Amino acid sequence: MIQIEHVKTVSRVANGGMAQFQEMMRQQLESSMHDELEKLLDTTTGAEREVSKKDFEGFKNLFHRFLQVKGPSVEWIKIQRPPEDSIQPYDKIAARGLPDNVANSLNKLVVVKLNGGLGTSMGCKGPKSLISVRNENTFLDLTVQQIEHLNKTYNTDVPLVLMNSFNTDEDTKKILQKYTHHRVKIHTFNQSRYPRVNKESLLPVSTNLSMNGQNAEGWYPPGHGDIYASFYNSGLLDQLIEQGKEYIFVSNIDNLGATVDLHILHHLVSQPNGKRCEFVMEVTDKTRADVKGGTLIQYEGKLRLLEIAQVPKTHVDEFKSVSKFKIFNTNNLWISLPAIKRLQEQNAMDMEIIVNPKTLDGGQNVIQLETAVGAAIKCFDNALGINVPRSRFLPVKTTSDLLLVMSNLYSLEAGSLTMSPKREFPTTPHVKLGSSFTKVQEYLIRFESIPDMLELDHLTVSGDVTFGKNVSLKGTVIIIANHGDRIDIPAGSMLENKIVSGNLRILDH
Predict the structure, then answer these.
(1) Segment holding 266, helix H or strand E
(2) Buried b (16+ CB within 10 A) or exposed e, 105-118
(3) Is the model's pTM score more than 0.70?
(4) Which residues of 28-48 are buried (b: 16+ CB within 10 A; e: fewer)?
(5) Which residues carry a binding-site annotation for UTP?
(6) Which residues are catalytic?
(7) Cα 113 from Cα 249, distance rounded (Å)
(8) What CATH superfamily is the domain 76-392?
(9) Cα-based distances in Å from 390 to 19, 156, 424
């Protein structure tokens, strides 16, 4: 029987029915996926079933599009540089000044922070937003302080919305109680929960909807592009529009440079109705450290985000070149609320699918389908890039970044970090801490106090190294402890343009 079926299939293909055969296979895969999702829904009841049902509708749509993809999402030859007026310099926006009544603009704004990530890459348990980054303040503390300062200064009501994931929701909600008496209304909604898919069978790896034991590995939050659907589905989008809110300012919660900018906000709300800009992407000039960041291009008459994952291998070097693609996406975005509602209701939100391969603890290969929030720029009317100062991009992804923001390079006021006026160069030093510093706990033990870094250009530390109190680092400093050796930088040391290697241990006697 199998042989007969095989012969039939081959003859169909031979008769020029390859496209038809592929379509049949796609439909079969889709049908199997739908059956499996129904089985998963049958493992629960009530509210959880309803939430998962909504999530699965989004996943089915993504999976359908994933099966339709027939090649690269962009043709390299069609890529053009964006027209001059589609990326405006920040100075030009700021030169217009601010209106007398800033409060009117602020009352149309909602601040949204992407809060779905865990602190695992920095060796921490729980949400990344709860890691202390400065004077015992967490990312979330600083965000609340910034918005509270705005609300008090201008007598406004700018709310904070957190997009949590199933990984961060419970812990975040517990901590929110401490902000009850702050002058900030805080709302949360949850990203969708999508099933990881077996790389071979293209079927879900989970057998039920629970998050217990091994089954927990079967689920993932599908990237920040999910914000549009999950925000809309939560009912919060409509609620905010009813309150007269017009724009959201979206950014990663670990980007400490992403504060509310009154000049960009004024630019948005002062546009005439027919010409309203529905989407602003803050971009900034590339340095060698940012060559992998997504960039803005003109493609088929629309402004579009191009990510490195979409670039054909033969053009990756060209994509990374600072001369051709000079700017990258900071993921600070200003988006019209009514436009999100319109596009969701028209099912017109089109974002490229990112296929993210993973290996589970048991060795099973899976894929997760994701989207990026900035990729929707092409769907919005009158979209604009604004080339902002580098200071608006200050992400803390590693302990090397943490060292910078904890140091005297920055001063902290009302939750905002600004570069110290005592630093002669506006650029941040390049800091590279070795694997002994990866986890926050280990990093903190290795510094008795954070060194003076006002005149530092470059710091590389490798191996078992500790720093005493009141150390000063200037110029280029490289400290390398060889395997089995240890280097203790003595309290009060001043290292300027120095290489320290070998074994330096100061012992008390």
Answers:
(1) helix 262-269
(2) bbbbbbbbbbbbbb
(3) yes
(4) ebbeebeebbeebbeeeeeee
(5) 128, 191, 223, 254, 397
(6) 397
(7) 8
(8) Spore Coat Polysaccharide Biosynthesis Protein SpsA; Chain A (3.90.550.10)
(9) 49, 28, 16
What architecture does CATH give domain 399-501? 3 Solenoid (2.160)
Residues present in the chain in total: 509
Q: What is the largest CA-CA distance in the chain?
A: 89
Give the Cα-Cα-Cα angle 122, 435, 390 (nearest 5 degrees): 60
Retrieve residue 435's tokens. 């694997």
SS3 string of 395-445? Answer: ECCCHHHHHHHHCCCEEEECCEEEECCCCCCCCCCEEEECHHHCCHHHHHH
Q: Are 279 and 336 in contact (CB under 8 A)?
A: yes
- Give the residue from 287, 286, 307, 288 showing the smallest Cα distance to 296: 307
Which amino acids are annotated as binding site for substrate, given as ranges? 224
Residue ranges of the binding site: 128, 191, 223-224, 254, 397
The whole-angstrom separation of Cα 93 and Cα 135 is: 34
pLDDT, mean of each 10-residue run, the chain (509 residues): 43 60 88 93 88 92 88 81 91 93 96 94 92 94 97 97 95 95 96 94 90 84 94 96 98 97 95 86 88 87 87 86 86 97 94 90 91 94 95 94 96 94 89 95 96 96 95 95 90 93 57
